[in-house]
Every structure is written in structure tokens, then in C-alpha cells.
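Progress note, sequence design subtask.
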């Protein structure tokens, strides 16, 4: 038999690899679905690429790649037999099979046991070889199988890692001496005993002194009085007051000069009247989230509808998303996006086409992972109601109510956060910033005419007036969200003043603070503040040819199909941490914005001259530009990126062109360029670059006074303009006319609309990769480009400005860097709350506490 197996595997030996240190083994989840070894069909791991595939998708990978050998992993989970020892470790067969495989939490208790099964499967005949089979398999195959079975799961590295050194137990913890001085610490109202500072306060565990910190491990600032107190008294341990939870606290040892663990922290705090259970704070998956527990309790309960008996719902569109640890911001955003028909059509309606044309590594393809998540949320496959027998059994056992498990967005999160300093971390993030980031990626990856983010895009008309000459300029910019400021216009002002008096009295008398009162702000006041004139900093008046005072007002030049409204609830505290304003907005279900429609230049208004401010380049900058022009072509191309693309099977010259025309921005950007241009007749032709002997306009002809940098504008700039809906030839002409300055090119496009129509005719068949169409808009729309726009411009779905509330995302906590997100979506005439993996009918949707609102345009009828 050994000889037979050896002979059977001989033709496939060149395709079987042993995972190296840099290889990721996807043995916990399918690349196209949420199938896992626990699924009915198990998981197939390719023995060459180490990608995982469910039973429905492994055939596609075999047909596409010809790879025949897969390892099939199956986990059999079953309830323990009656009478089994309750504390027994779950029984395993082949104990090392899934050594680092993440267990489903439902099966991680004492009531279940599981058996792991692994075998090699050879396609297309589905010939199976059980594992382990050391005696009968060739040595290379045995080594490869053992390496796959014992390799960590692909996303194990994504888990919260020990980027800090492991915290050790303090040597003072067991023998700490505490003074019996009668000190009792109140639940709030703390301040430093020496400087009255109210932030970054530390409680000395020996004498109960409350003092401010400085230069501690958490990076907080202060006046250093806690450290000064230690030098005077040698009392070694202190605990940070606003980080005490039932799970522990942040303890610092002055003598050991590091953060430490105190196993007796509960007793040490009780000495000063602090009950850790009373200090309970809301956390998310074990991560401390809220640094202001008392005021936030009611908000958590109201937004999550905690006191209500919410009815769970199942089926298509009612699938939850597992929390990966501070990933609720991603869950809330994706639930809302996939409730919009355009996103459903783009990614779920085109599911088979996307999967069939996915790259060899689908885990790195944005469209594939969006389609995977969309199908998981909308198919109903992962949201099934419990069987009647299960319900009866749970009632008999008095177990918890059945809840769906939800789908895990691990692959999509890893992809969209790659290279992003914030989203790639395991910390809580701002859902608004993620939403703009996702829409940015949708823009960049929509290679055809279909772009679901078009439903959010609209034009804002900005009217700038020179206060001295009274002349005006009208410009338009692209935006995807309106950010409404929160004015000081509370309707319950007297109630707020009374609360402030009571709060100060409680502070002075060291009593617990009164129940917090939220400021109630009318939505109309926020809208009015958005349209109020604002000063323009550093305004340069072309009428005066000098800096002057200027004011700006904004109106809608077009209305989007779906309007995103963000309430600017967050500001910066003294420690530069974003903090939330404690308020409620009376947000309406229906919204009419037609009165905010832009009007353009009015009779009697005089326009500012169309002149640009003078640009003066230092001599050293001009020298750099000249040097860049005369660099040899080979120095302009990242050969490592070229070879990486060539190894994927693309022609070498095409790879060189892709890297060059995307400005050495990396293989991913170059790959997008290849996909968009591979049908062109000169796709594989050699790259031709302007030589240093090419004639060009003189320095005096250039508006910047510098030598032109080549006849062809940078491809990334062309891609940005084409992704906004402008014809390719018109975009190139604009860039050439403005020395490749993107903002000035946009200005040029809207001052030369008569040339666009003829350019569009010659460019109708062109499709370009959508690069970063947001530019500066991904963080603040105020800093976006402001080109002069005519009636022609980016793709917008204009229509009436009447809207109905569709969904809203709410945040609980004191800061965007902490807390928890949930979303409410109106489906089939009823509100549904999506709280991570829990999906229920909403009894009392807290519309007044939302952070981001989504409105759908009402039909004109």
C-alpha cells in the first residue's frame, strides 16, 4: 500500500509545498465563504497556496489553478454524554491536528467534546488518504502535512499581541503596608491634593493620597506629584483611578519603575472604601473601553435597549457580525452599507462573476471579500432560527436564549486595514473615518462603470466673497457626507444650569454626582449652523491681488440618492484625546433640504477675476525638479515591484509600464493598472519614456517656472480624475496644461467645459482604475479640493432634496477611541438593532443619540 500511495502522489509532488516562515495557512475559514472545519463540508486547504476553501468553492480553485492536492479538515462537535465529568477537558482525536485553530466559543465549554479529522484529497477523483499516515506517505508529503497541521492560523497574528512587555507581579503586592488613617475615596469628583488637577490621577495604595501623574507608562501628562510623593514617603504602589474595573486596574510601581500586577488589588482598594464591583465599566471583549463610567451607564442601556425583551430575528438581511475585539465600528458600517440596494447589486448580485474572475489569492481582493461578506449577511445561510427541539431542550436546561453566531469579518478587516496605522490595530476606531475609508476603497476598486458609492456622492457649491471688494467666486467640490456642527442652542437650558449647580455642590462636598442631563439640540439648529457664513483663513483676493478678509457659505449643488449626516459630537480634551459631547439631537424621520439648493451667480453679483496667487519656488526646489527630470528611466521604476508582478504571469514590459505609470506606489496599485489596461493593443509593448534630449517648453513657459517633468502626466493623477467621471483625454489635457498640478487641473476642467464633449467621444470605451478619489476628504470635507465646476462634472445622482431616515449608527462611550458601536436599520417598515452578532427587532430606537445618520431620497411622486 505504501508503494501504491507513493506512486499515486508522484505526479503531484512538484505542487506540494512545505509552508515557510512567511506563509500564511488559511485553515480556519474559506476564502470565498464563512465555511470552516466545523461546517458540514469541512474545509479544504490547498497544499501549494495554503488557501482554505469550503466544499462549494474548492472545485473552482482546482479548475482555475490545476492544483490537485488538498488537505481536508473536519471538526466533529457533539454534546457530552449524560454523566460525563463536567470539568473534563474536551476529548480530541489526533490532538495536534488543529493545534492553533480558533474554536467556536459555543463549543469551548465543558458540555461539548470534539474530534478532529484530517485527510489528503486528490482532485478531480476525490481520492482520500487519511492522516496521519507517516509509514505510507513520501517523506516530503509527511513533512508538508505536519507543517500545515501545526502552523498557526493565518490571522493568529492579527490578535491582540504583546507589543508591550509582559507585566509582572510587583514584589510589593503581597506585603504592601496600608495605613489605617480613615481615608475613604468617593466614586467620583477626584482631584490632585497638590494642584487640583482632575485628569491622570493616581491613588497611592499605602496612604490613599490622590495625586497627578507624569511620564507614566500610559503616556499621560501631569505635574508629577504622585512621583514626588513617592520620593518623600517611599510608598511604592499607585493605581490609576479612572481605569478600575471588575477585571483589574492599572497599577504602577515607583520603585520598580514599571507597570505591575497586584493580585490583591481588590483588598487594597477595599481598604479605602472602593468596591471594584461598584466601579464596573462597560467593556468590549475584555478591552477596557470607557474612562467615565458613571455618566455613560444610561447611554449604554438606552442605545442597546438593554432593559427591553427584544425579539431576535433571522434570515436574509438579519445576520449578525462577530466582534473580533474592538471591531464593532466595522460591523456597524458594513451592516448599513449592505442594506443599500446598490451595494447588494454590485457585490452580491455579481457574486459568481466576482468569484470566477478573482485573483489567485482571493483573500487579497477587495471585491471578493466584499462579495463574501455581503453574501454572508444577505443569504440567510448563517442566520437560521433554532429548531423546535433545541428550544425545548434549552427551556428544560434553563439555558440562555438562542442567539445566532454571526459571521466573522476577519479577512475583510485584515484587507481594508492593511497599511493603515489605525484600522490595522486592535483598538477602537471612529466609524465615520472607516466609512470614508471603505468608500475610498470602493472607488479605487470599481474598474467598470458600476460604482455603488455613486449613491453617496454630491456636489457642494461654495460661495466665497471678498469682504473688501464685495466680489464673489462660486466653486464646487465633491463630497460624500455632510458634517453638522453642534451649536449652543439647547432647548433645556434651565435644566442644564440646575444640573451644573448640583454637580459642583456634589464635587465640593465629595458626594456622588447627580444623574447627568443631556443637552437637547434641535436638528434645525445644527442645519442652520452648517449653512452659516464662515471666515476663510488666509484668503487671497484676486481683485485686490493681496490677502484680505473673506467669508464662505455652502449649499447643495446636487442632492445624493443617499445622504450621510454626521453629527460632530466629538472634540479634543486637554490630553488631545477625542471626547464626546453629552447631548441629544432631535433628528427627524423626514427631511426636506430643497431650500438649501445652490443658486449660482446672482444678478448684481460681480465675480472675482480668475487669477491664481503667485507661486514662488525656492531655488533649491527648482534644482530638485530639474534633477528629477534628468534621472535615467531605470531609476524611476521599482524593479522589485516589477518582478513581483512578473511572477504572477504578466508580461515583463507591461509590469514595467504599470509600476512606472502608477508612480512606484507599490505592486497593488500597479496590479490595478494592469487589470484596467490588459485589453489595450499596446499592453505588452516596451515602455517608452521621454529622454533628457526631448524638446519641451522653456522654463519661462511653465507657470511654475520649472522644467516640465515629461509629456505624460502621472498615471495616478489621471486615475483620480477619471474615477471622478471625467474623460481620460480631457483629464490628460488638463494635467498637461497645469504642469500636472491636480487641484489646478480640476480648476482647468471646469473652465474649459466646451472641450470635454469632443474628448468624451474619443474616450467612451476607456476604463481606468479608480485611485483615491477622496484626496483630502477622507478625514475632513472642509479640506477638500475646491475646483470651479460647471454643470458637467463627476457622476452624481441628483434629484429632489426630500429624504426619509433609513439607518443610524450610535456610539456609546466618552471617546471615539473607546466604547462601543451599534446600528439601527429600518427594514420592511420596522426598526432592527444590529449589536455585533445579535440582531433583534428594536422596541425604542434611540434616534436622538445617533452619531451617523443615513437618509434615503423619497421619490418625486
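Output:
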Amino acid at each position: 500500500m505504501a508503494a501504491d500511495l507513493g506512486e499515486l502522489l508522484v505526479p503531484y509532488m512538484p505542487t506540494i509545498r512545505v509552508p515557510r516562515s512567511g506563509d500564511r495557512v488559511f485553515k480556519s475559514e474559506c476564502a470565498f465563504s464563512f465555511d470552516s472545519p466545523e461546517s458540514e463540508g469541512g474545509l479544504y486547504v490547498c497544499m501549494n497556496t495554503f488557501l482554505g476553501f469550503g466544499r462549494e468553492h474548492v472545485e473552482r480553485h482546482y479548475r482555475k489553478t490545476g492544483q490537485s492536492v488538498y488537505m481536508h479538515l473536519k471538526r466533529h462537535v457533539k454534546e457530552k454524554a449524560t454523566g460525563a465529568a463536567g470539568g473534563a477537558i474536551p476529548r480530541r482525536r489526533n490532538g495536534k491536528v488543529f493545534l492553533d485553530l480558533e474554536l467556536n466559543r459555543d463549543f469551548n465549554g465543558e458540555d461539548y467534546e470534539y474530534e478532529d479529522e484530517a485527510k489528503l484529497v486528490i482532485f478531480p477523483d476525490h481520492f482520500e488518504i487519511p492522516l496521519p499516515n507517516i509509514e505510507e506517505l513520501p517523506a516530503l508529503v509527511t513533512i508538508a502535512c505536519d507543517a500545515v497541521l501545526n502552523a498557526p492560523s493565518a490571522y493568529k497574528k492579527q490578535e491582540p499581541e504583546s507589543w508591550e512587555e509582559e507585566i509582572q507581579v510587583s514584589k510589593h503586592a503581597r506585603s504592601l503596608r496600608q495605613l489605617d488613617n480613615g481615608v475613604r475615596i468617593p466614586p467620583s469628583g477626584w482631584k490632585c491634593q497638590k494642584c487640583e488637577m482632575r485628569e491622570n490621577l493616581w491613588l497611592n495604595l499605602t496612604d490613599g493620597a490622590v495625586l497627578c501623574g507624569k511620564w507614566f507608562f500610559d503616556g499621560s501628562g501631569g505635574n508629577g506629584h504622585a512621583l514626588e510623593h513617592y520620593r518623600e514617603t517611599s510608598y511604592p504602589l499607585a493605581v490609576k483611578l479612572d481605569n478600575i474595573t471588575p477585571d483589574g486596574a492599572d497599577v504602577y510601581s515607583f520603585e520598580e519603575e514599571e507597570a505591575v500586577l497586584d493580585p490583591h488589588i481588590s483588598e487594597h482598594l477595599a481598604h479605602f472604601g472602593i468596591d471594584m464591583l461598584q466601579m464596573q465599566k462597560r467593556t468590549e471583549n475584555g478591552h477596557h473601553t470607557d474612562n467615565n463610567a458613571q455618566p455613560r451607564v444610561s447611554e449604554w442601556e438606552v442605545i442597546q435597549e438593554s432593559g427591553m425583551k427584544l425579539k431576535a430575528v433571522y434570515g436574509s438581511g438579519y445576520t449578525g457580525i462577530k466582534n473580533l475585539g474592538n471591531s464593532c465600528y466595522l460591523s456597524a458600517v458594513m451592516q448599513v452599507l449592505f442594506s443599500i440596494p446598490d451595494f447588494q447589486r454590485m457585490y452580491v448580485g455579481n457574486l459568481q462573476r466576482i468569484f470566477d474572475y478573482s485573483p489567485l489569492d482571493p483573500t487579497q481582493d477587495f471585491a471578493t471579500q466584499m462579495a463574501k461578506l455581503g453574501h454572508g449577511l444577505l443569504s440567510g445561510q448563517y442566520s437560521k432560527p433554532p429548531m423546535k427541539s433545541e428550544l425545548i431542550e434549552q427551556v428544560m436546561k434553563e439555558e440562555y436564549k438562542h442567539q445566532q453566531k454571526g459571521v466573522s469579518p476577519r479577512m475583510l478587516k485584515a484587507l481594508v486595514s492593511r497599511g493603515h496605522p489605525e484600522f490595522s490595530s486592535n483598538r477602537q476606531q471612529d466609524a465615520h473615518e472607516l466609512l470614508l475609508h471603505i468608500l475610498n476603497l470602493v472607488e479605487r476598486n470599481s474598474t467598470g462603470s458600476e460604482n455603488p458609492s455613486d449613491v453617496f456622492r454630491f456636489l457642494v457649491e461654495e460661495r466665497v466673497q471678498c469682504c473688501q471688494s464685495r466680489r464673489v467666486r462660486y466653486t464646487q467640490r465633491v463630497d460624500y457626507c455632510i458634517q453638522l456642527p453642534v451649536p449652543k442652542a439647547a432647548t433645556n437650558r434651565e435644566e442644564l444650569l440646575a444640573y451644573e449647580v448640583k454637580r459642583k455642590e456634589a464635587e465640593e462636598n465629595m458626594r456622588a454626582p447627580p444623574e447627568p442631563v443631556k443637552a437637547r439640540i434641535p436638528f434645525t439648529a445644527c442645519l442652520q449652523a452648517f449653512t452659516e457664513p464662515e471666515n476663510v483663513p488666509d484668503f487671497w483676493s484676486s481683485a485686490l491681488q493681496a490677502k484680505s478678509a473673506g467669508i464662505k457659505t455652502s449649499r447643495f449643488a446636487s442632492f445624493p440618492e443617499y445622504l450621510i449626516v454626521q453629527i460632530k459630537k466629538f472634540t479634543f480634551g486637554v490630553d488631545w484625546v477625542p471626547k464626546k459631547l453629552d447631548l441629544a439631537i432631535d433628528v427627524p424621520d423626514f427631511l426636506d433640504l430643497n431650500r438649501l439648493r445652490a443658486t449660482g451667480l446672482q444678478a448684481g453679483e460681480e465675480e472675482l477675476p480668475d487669477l491664481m496667487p503667485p507661486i514662488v519656488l525656492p531655488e533649491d526646489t527648482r534644482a530638485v525638479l530639474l534633477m528629477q527630470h534628468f534621472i535615467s528611466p531605470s531609476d524611476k521604476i521599482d524593479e522589485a515591484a516589477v518582478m513581483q508582478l512578473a511572477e504572477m504571469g504578466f508580461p515583463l514590459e507591461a509590469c514595467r509600464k504599470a509600476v512606472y505609470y502608477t508612480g512606484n506606489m507599490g505592486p497593488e496599485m500597479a496590479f490595478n493598472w494592469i487589470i484596467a489596461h490588459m485589453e489595450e493593443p499596446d499592453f505588452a509593448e516596451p515602455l517608452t519614456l521621454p529622454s533628457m534630449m526631448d524638446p519641451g517648453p522653456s522654463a519661462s513657459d511653465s507657470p511654475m517656472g520649472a522644467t516640465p517633468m515629461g509629456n505624460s502626466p502621472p498615471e495616478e493623477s489621471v486615475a483620480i480624475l477619471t474615477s471622478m467621471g471625467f474623460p481620460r483625454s480631457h483629464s490628460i489635457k488638463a494635467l498637461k496644461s497645469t504642469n500636472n498640478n491636480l487641484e489646478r487641473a480640476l480648476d482647468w476642467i471646469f473652465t474649459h467645459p466646451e472641450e470635454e464633449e469632443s474628448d468624451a467621444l474619443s474616450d467612451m470605451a476607456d476604463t481606468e482604475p479608480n485611485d483615491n478619489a477622496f484626496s483630502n476628504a477622507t478625514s475632513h470635507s472642509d479640506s477638500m479640493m475646491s475646483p470651479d465646476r460647471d454643470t458637467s462634472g463627476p457622476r452624481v445622482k441628483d434629484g429632489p432634496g426630500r429624504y426619509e431616515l433609513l439607518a443610524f449608527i450610535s456610539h456609546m462611550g466618552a471617546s471615539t477611541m473607546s466604547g462601543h458601536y451599534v446600528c439601527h436599520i429600518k427594514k420592511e417598515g420596522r426598526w432592527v438593532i444590529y449589536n455585533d452578532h445579535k440582531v433583534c427587532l428594536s422596541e425604542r430606537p434611540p434616534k436622538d443619540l445617533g452619531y451617523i445618520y443615513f437618509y434615503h431620497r423619497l421619490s418625486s411622486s
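Residues 201-281 form a domain with the Herpes Virus-1 fold (CATH 3.30.40.10). Work on this subtask will continue into the next period as scheduled.
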